[in-house]
Specification:
Family: Belongs to the TMEM175 family.
Subcellular location: Membrane
Radius of gyration: 18 Å
Order of helices and strands: HHHHHHHHH
Protein name: DUF1211 domain-containing protein
Number of domains: 1
Number of strands: 0
Largest sheet: none
Shape: globular
Keywords: Ion channel, Ion transport, Membrane, Potassium, Potassium channel, Potassium transport, Transmembrane, Transmembrane helix, Transport
InterPro entries: TMEM175-like
Strand content: under 5%
Structural class: mainly alpha
Distance between the termini: 24 Å
Number of helices: 9
Length: 192
Amino acid sequence: MNKNRLEAFSDGVIAIIITIMVLELKIPHGAEFSALRPLIPVFFSYLLSFTYVGIYWNNHHHMLHATPHVTGRVLWANLHFLFWLSLFPFATAWAGENHFSAATMAVYGLVLLMASLAYWLLQQAIISTDCASSKLLTAVGRDRKGKISPLLYAIGIALSFYTPWLSGVLYVIVALMWLVPDRRIETVLAQK
């Protein structure tokens, strides 16, 4: 399969995910600024999730540029990744609507954790198609951020039952770590 088709499909799914998330921002009943106050938690959960989806979209795009060809394993790994991304609207809405309660923050963290693991599996599937000469393998290197992120998600999930706001802080920290686009892949592709 042509990797452009995989990228186009993934872009479409990600666009739908963002659309579903924004639809959860309900129009307030009232024309005063005070009518927006109940939407603040929902907006913050949307903002964080939008940032995460944007980070994944950006890195997914770069990863596919380093991909020589797509195999069935890569297709299934990509679908697995998109499955976890597709749960972002649910986790986002539930956390925002319930003011970041313990259970909602645990589920939000679980979705973040599973999306990161699915992304790693996709990355490994791509690397295995090109073996030792893989540009992606060279670019990823030791992947410190990729190893730290799931650990922080797991800590955030555990903390959510004691101090949900602290788990939210950890989720924001991980997003901030990845907010600057990962230039490792761009650098390797520019060298070759």
